[in-house]
Amino acid sequence: MKFLSFFLSFIVKIFNRISCVIMRSRFRECGSGCLFFSVNSHFSYATISLGKDVYIGPNANFSSAEETITIGDKVMFGPDVMIIGGDHNISQLGKYMHDVKEKLPQNDAPIVICDDVWVGARSIILKGVTLGEGCVVAAGSIVTKSVPPYAIVKGSPAVVYKYRFTKEEIEIHRKMIQNQKS
């Protein structure tokens, strides 16, 4: 039984790697070293740009009809994360919301996720949000407003809980990271 479980797990991993290689060209941009689970996830590929070394956990839903979702380098997403880049137009009189196809400019807004961000499992990122460099979004959070660099946010709606580093440590961290890039 253990062998069967191991074998099936191995097959799923190989299938995911192959589908990842095939699907990466569908993204607007996709840097090297990205790993995502296209089989059990939904992406609006044409509006999404991925940096280098991005990991997107299983069951992701990254969706934006018109605006872009830009994801920096070395970003990690836990399982079941949703990024929603827009709303439905709900302001038309005399029509069912389902039948309204026209979007208003305020219905969509770009989402930017900077480098070195970690988004925990089952978090939701809504339109118009920027997640600053090095920030952390705790599992299950709903992010409705932009997050400052190196902040740790949690809750619904997400609020700053604390910062990863002091201001002095942030400068040291940035210099060390920059040296790694050189």
TrEMBL record:
<dbReference type="Pfam" id="PF14602">
    <property type="entry name" value="Hexapep_2"/>
</dbReference>
<dbReference type="InterPro" id="IPR051159">
    <property type="entry name" value="Hexapeptide_acetyltransf"/>
</dbReference>
<keyword id="KW-0808">Transferase</keyword>
<protein>
    <submittedName>
        <fullName>Acyltransferase</fullName>
    </submittedName>
</protein>
<keyword id="KW-0012">Acyltransferase</keyword>
<comment type="similarity">
    <text>Belongs to the transferase hexapeptide repeat family.</text>
</comment>
<dbReference type="InterPro" id="IPR001451">
    <property type="entry name" value="Hexapep"/>
</dbReference>
<dbReference type="GO" id="GO:0008374">
    <property type="term" value="F:O-acyltransferase activity"/>
</dbReference>
<dbReference type="InterPro" id="IPR011004">
    <property type="entry name" value="Trimer_LpxA-like_sf"/>
</dbReference>
